[in-house]
Specification:
Elements: H1 5-9, E1 19-25, H2 36-48, E2 53-60, E3 64-71, H3 76-95, E4 107-110, H4 117-125, H5 127-130, E5 143-145
Helix pairs in contact: 2-3
Organism: Amphritea opalescens
Pfam families: Y1_Tnp
GO molecular function: sequence-specific DNA binding; transposase activity
Amino acid sequence: MKGNSSGLRKGRYSEPGRIYLVTFVTFQRKPIFNDFILGRKLVDVIRKESEFTDTLAFVVMPDHVHWLLQLKSKSLSDTLKTVKSLSSREIKRLRAVSGIIWQKGFHDHAVRREEDLVDIARYIVMNPVRAGLVTSIREYALWDAVWL
């Protein structure tokens, strides 16, 4: 079955000021970010998007990213397009790799006002512990949250 993730976005609207939980995945779920240097480069790219978003929490897993953000001026699609494009360029430059880095599309959830952002952030940053990568989040360097 061929994916049609761009078709899923048709008619979708991203709202400035709205908070979104976004997940995006590496192509064929390759664990690119087992390489710490590449993970840090992706963190740098996410932080550079702060002109267009307020990052509330994120975690970079070996083959995917969870990002809790509040949009400022760019659309959600444009924000993710920029992050994927810039990080792909940097990954290819740093490791002389070719080919596709990111799977097309992304999953997003517009956070409702009644949802507890701190609980969502804790869930995000605990991913490496739940995945068995570390026993404590203190042992994992590819995350951040404004509350923790």
